[in-house]
Amino acid sequence: MSTLPPCPACASEYAYQDGLLLVCPECGHEWAPGEAAEAGEDVKLVRDANGNPLADGDTVVVVKDLKIKGSSSVVKIGTKVRNIRLVDGDHDIDCRIEGIGPMKLKSCFVKKDAG
C-alpha cells in the first residue's frame, strides 16, 4: 500500500513521487507533499458532463431529459438552471428550477453555461 496522499485535484489514489513533487498520472496535477494539507484536502472538485469545474453561483444547462421521481413532470433538455449551490452527496447540485421548484441534480447531467 502506498502512503502517499491522493491527488488534491481529482482524488486519484495512484499518485507517485517524482523528485520533490508528487504527480498524478490521471490528471497530470503536480504538487508539493505538504501543499495538499495546507490547502485543505476536504475540497471536492465538482465537474460537469464535459469535465469543466463547477462553482457556487454558476449557471448550468441540463443535457438530458430528467424524470422527476414521484411526479409526472420532466426537466427538459436545454433547461437553464441559475445560481446553483454545490453540496456533498450523490446529487451534488442543489438548485431551484423555474416552474418546478427546489431540486437536487447530479453534475453528470448538466453542462456549464458559456453565457
UniProtKB/TrEMBL annotation:
InterPro entries: YjdM, YjdM_C, YjdM_N. It holds the Pfam family Zn_Ribbon_YjdM. Residues 46-112 form the Protein YjdM C-terminal domain. Gene3D superfamilies: 2.20.25.10, SH3 Domains. Coiled coil: none annotated. PANTHER family: PROTEIN YJDM, PROTEIN YJDM-RELATED. This is Alkylphosphonate utilization protein. The lineage of its organism: Bacteria, Pseudomonadati, Pseudomonadota, Gammaproteobacteria, Lysobacterales.
